[in-house]
Write a structure and sequence with these properties.
Blueprint lengths: L7 H6 L13 E7 L7 H10 L5 E4 L1 H6 L1 H9 L3 E4 L12 H15 L3 E2 L8 H7 L4 E2 L4 E2 L9 H11 L4 E6 L5 H17 L3 E2 L4
Parallel strand pairs: 1-2, 1-7, 1-8, 2-3, 4-5, 6-7
Length: about 200
């Protein structure tokens, strides 16, 4: 994921996936990929609780297995969960069946009806297979909080520049992102609230 807001042609590749919610609804959807891990998940949960905001966590199965208490913390706090494969598997390096089995293994732990592919890509065959079982959730805004070239201020500015009605906003629950999120996540939530956005999760 190297662009903050995907072009229309990219959205056409996975036409039944959720890229953006209702354009007429002044709401946004906060999502967090790659966790849970003890170095970042508690901060994210504390921040969301502070502002009374719910988010959706697309979790890696092996992290859930290793830190199941954090998975429970996410669920018990009323957040939504999604499947992000068992070990952050890239679709193009594996056969469709292997990828589907990996996602199924993860879902034995995550119990989700939502799926987001790592790196934002899937083979067409994987997309067809998984979309029969899951709602595929992509994104309208990637904050790029994982980038070593960006600061927390840059991440916040990406939110300010690209957030719009119905935006599915992607942050990362990861070691690469946490130091930037300590600045950018609370500031982003505050700014979005100031703009009158409501925070929602997926039906």
């Amino acid at each position: 994921m190297i662009i903050e807001q995907p072009a229309k042609w990219l959205r056409w590749i996975y036409p039944r996936a959720l890229w953006r919610m209702d354009k007429k609804d002044h709401s946004v959807y906060l999502t967090f990929d790659d966790g849970p891990i003890p170095e970042s998940t508690p901060f994210i949960l504390e921040t969301l609780a502070k502002y009374n905001v719910k988010g959706t966590f697309f979790m890696v199965g092996e992290n859930v297995l290793r830190y199941h208490d954090l998975y429970n913390d996410i669920v018990n706090a009323g957040h939504q969960v999604g499947n992000h494969t068992f070990n952050h598997m890239g679709s193009f390096k594996h056969w469709t069946l292997s990828y589907a089995l990996n996602a199924s293994k993860a879902n034995e732990l995550i119990h989700a009806h939502l799926f987001r592919p790592p790196h934002g890509w899937m083979r067409a065959s994987v997309y067809w297979w998984l979309s029969r079982q899951y709602t595929i959730v992509m994104w309208d805004l990637v904050t790029r909080d994982y980038s070593k070239w960006l600061t927390g201020e840059d991440v916040l500015n990406n939110v300010k520049r690209f957030a719009r009605n119905g935006s599915i906003i992607t942050f990362h629950d990861s070691l690469k992102s946490i130091e930037k999120l300590k600045y950018a996540l609370p500031k982003s939530i505050e700014w979005l609230k100031e703009q009158g956005y409501e925070f929602k999760t997926f039906d």
